[in-house]
Amino acid sequence: MHCLEVNDLVHRYRNGDVVLDGVTLRIPAGSIYGFLGPNGAGKTTTLRLILGLIALQHGAISIFGLQLAAHRIDILRRVGSLIESPSLYDHLTATENLALLQAVHRVDEAKIGDVLDLVGLAGTHRKKVGEFSLGMKQRLAIAVALLHEPELLILDEPTNGLDPNGIVEMRALLTRLNRERGLTIVISSHLLAEIERLATHVGIIHRGRVLFEGTLDELQRRRRTHVALATNDDERAIALLARQSIAATIADGRIVMPAMPNTAIAQVNRRLVDAGLDVHELHTAGDDLEAIFMNLVSN
Amino acid sequence: MTLDFPMVLRCEWLKRRRSFAGWLVLGGALFTPAIIIAVRLVQHAKLPALYANPAFWPSLWRSAWESMAMLLLPIAAILATSLVAQIEFRNNAWKQVRTLPLHPATIYAAKLAVILVLIGQLLALFSVGIWLAAAVPWLFVAGVPWPSDMLSPSFVFAQNARYFVDCLPIVAAQYAIALHSRNYLVPLGAGFVAWIGALGLLQWKYAFVFPYTYTMLDYLGGEPAGKVTVPAIGTAPYALGYAALFAVAGYVLFATKRQKG
């Protein structure tokens, strides 16, 4: 079942520039959905449309099976969000920031302590949010988003500005929330490595179009493999391979050949050794996720 | 909206904690009484005669209200409105507010109510300040009698209510501008220009068509010389009419804003 469905979103700026060009997304319930794309691809605009922060120009958005246009308030009761930088009141403490929303969401006051514990900010007491580090603010913003126990969490670049330790902590927190509470999480990022470590599903957007959508495994199945070779005389090795009709090129200081069966790899090795070449390295390699992403985006 | 409103009002009221709002109310309300106290303590020799005057309280009330009606109340309305709207802009919090499960009308009305409560606090505290302006010199200067014929609570309430209504169009117009402008200088600048414009228009017989003039007209209309022209029906119907118009226009702008955060 899909927790969030977005159909054929088209959005134009006032000057006519197209930001989103038919964006369609299917986000399964209980998934961690990595919404990936370079800066300016249309991620934030899509998420803002999903939250109703921008007027819908074309297309349809359905969350929990309800149309956003007709059931906005009912839907927002079940959604937590963090769009770009944290929305916090700097002159108030963490507890006071949460107390504002506790009144609106009408949740038990004890929940404030629970979510502060959850994000590791229970000891901030009277410290004003303006005195927090960016990492602490990001964590408090997550606490704000979690206060009313939402079923869907929408996070736009939540690791922006975090140090490596903060990124690891954020990832651990989100994974725990997903596993323990079954929370569906949509997380946008331009950092592929971040999504790779966290997401179960991936949507890749570029220039307002969705280029890929599926599970992380499906994306990784797009890996293009090749055989890498290193010898003591690569020029001569390439000439020998060419005589056997193997198209080899040099890339990153290695000879790269098309993927081939293990028997063919052994045969290549034998011939090179027989020809008096020293083989230092011979193995099958594949594109990493970054290469897959770059291929998708550049195509 | 009805069920959510008290909760949202509480939430909005919490936001102004530790902001400039408290100081604005305190400073605005006690500025004039403090000056009156200081002047009277300096000129303490004149106090026995002054306090024995049967018209002491009406005279004190009018002299205290001069700066309030002409300057402090319109400026406080402009500042309080900008302050409340700017809390969201300054903290980049509109996107959080706009993704709460609330009707836009609830958000709009709750913020407006906070501004009106602040203005109400200012007026109430100012009345206390006027009483202190009489009591403090009496306490510190020997031989001064307690002035007779104190103003009745109903008179004080009626006067405050009148001035409260007079400043509603300023609040509503400033609120509409402030919610629409990320740059706080826009509502402040517009407010100050309108206030100066109102001062300049006072002598004009149709000054009452300008919605920023009502606190001034109400005050000056009570002058025996009749410095200004006050419409026969008073300023309140005009003030209420403009306030309703600006409040509705402000809400339409707020609810239909393209970028909501």
Give your account of this protein's structure.
The complex is a heterodimer of chains A (299) and B (261). Chain A is α/β, with parallel strands linked by helices. Chain A has 2 domains: 2-220, Rossmann fold; 225-298, Alpha-Beta Plaits, CATH 3.30.70. Helix content of chain A is 38%, strand content 29%. Chain A has helices at 43-50, 68-76, 94-105, 110-118, 134-146, 164-181, 192-198, 216-220, 234-243, 262-274, 289-298, and strands at residues 2-12, 18-28, 32-36, 58-63, 66-67, 79-82, 152-156, 184-189, 201-206, 209-215, 225-231, 249-251, 254-258, 279-286. In chain A, the strands form 3 sheets. In chain A, strands 6-7-8-3-9-10 form a 6-stranded mixed sheet, with helices on both faces. Chain A has a 4-stranded antiparallel sheet with strand order 2-1-4-5. Chain A is elongated and about 80 Å long. The mean pLDDT of chain A is 90. Chain B is mainly alpha-helical and 261 residues long. Chain B has one domain. Chain B contains 11 helices and no strands. The chains are: A alpha/beta (299), B mainly alpha (261). At the A-B interface, helix 2 and helix 3 of A face helix 1 and helix 5 of B.
**Which topology of the largest domain in chain A does CATH recognise?**
Rossmann fold
Percent range of helical residues of chain B: over 70%
Gyration radius of chain A, rounded: 25 Å
Q: What portion of the residues of chain A fall into strands of 2 or more residues?
A: 25-35%
Helix content of chain A: 25-40%
Classified in CATH, the superfamily of the largest domain in chain A is: P-loop containing nucleotide triphosphate hydrolases
Low-pLDDT residue intervals, each spanning 5 or more residues of chain B:
none
Helix-strand string of chain A: EEEHEEHEHHHEHEHEEHEHEEHEH
Gross morphology of chain A: elongated
Q: Work out the count of structural domains of chain B.
A: 1
Number of helices of chain B: 11
Tally the beta strands of chain A: 14
